Amino acid sequence: MRSYRKVSRKLRSVREFARGLAATDHPLLVHIVPIRRCNIDCGYCNEFDKVSDPIPLETMLARLDKLAGLGTSVVAFSGGEPMLHPDLDTLIRRIRLRGMIAGLITNGYLLSPKRIHALNDAGLDYLQISIDNVEPDEISKKSLRLLDKKLQWLAEHAHFDVNINSVVGGGIKNPEDARTINRRARELGFSTSIGIIHDGSGLLKPLGAAERAVFDEVMRLINGQRQVVKNLYSGIRNFQTNLADGKPNQWQCRAGARYLYICEDGLVHWCSQQRGCPGVPLATYTIADIRRELLAPKWCAPMCTIGCVHRVSTMDFWRKPQRQDAGIAPGPVSEVS
Description:
alpha/beta; 10 helices
């Protein structure tokens, strides 16, 4: 079963890659929030609360159908903690039914053998867990000690691809933990990545000497590893080198076009850190919006740390240069879709 699922994922991924090269009028990756609530609280995170209810099933299904209508390639759930949504499996099935690739970003706390099998049955393609430290502290509860058993269950039971992301920056106390996390993930056969995270106010700071040494070492390990498992959360990483030094990147961010972030209110944003841009309801989002955002330069792009946006935007680095007169997006709105 695992081999069949792996071949199927690869074929569908190749199909979507080719479609993305051929045309620019559809999103390649969408992150959508089914619930803002999270079961843990990490000091650097500004993407959760403790009180929100799950988005109603019918509302979420309508949003997924809209994304399919826009020709979206990959839809991944984020949060909050998306595994708190009681109908997550139904939502994953809807993504697959509509011909899209299904992803999930989770803190991993709610994983169990039974839950992993349910995700298999729903048709999940990709899962990512970001593990921030070896021991939990006030900055992050996503620790290797608390999650290692979950990782073992994933290695034993998951039919979907798993990526384990380690991090430096953002107040993480022991940067050398990233080395330990990366090594453990590779031992279990997962693809690995490393990210530079912002602090609680969303700001990026250059890495200190100790952080940079660990970052460089882990990057060498990742670049030298024959990653048997490749997925949408691993891959292009070169943009992070400048960020590690606090230097800007020169690139064309295609957020709002090739990448969409859909918040719990059903609004389209460039990403989780740029709420209100453009702030248009998904229900009314059109190809005209996609074309506008494809060509519109993003003021925040030089210091952006959002890896998925960098990777998706790479698809179009060679074409359609962005320009200041590409058009002005509507301002933030309060309408919910």
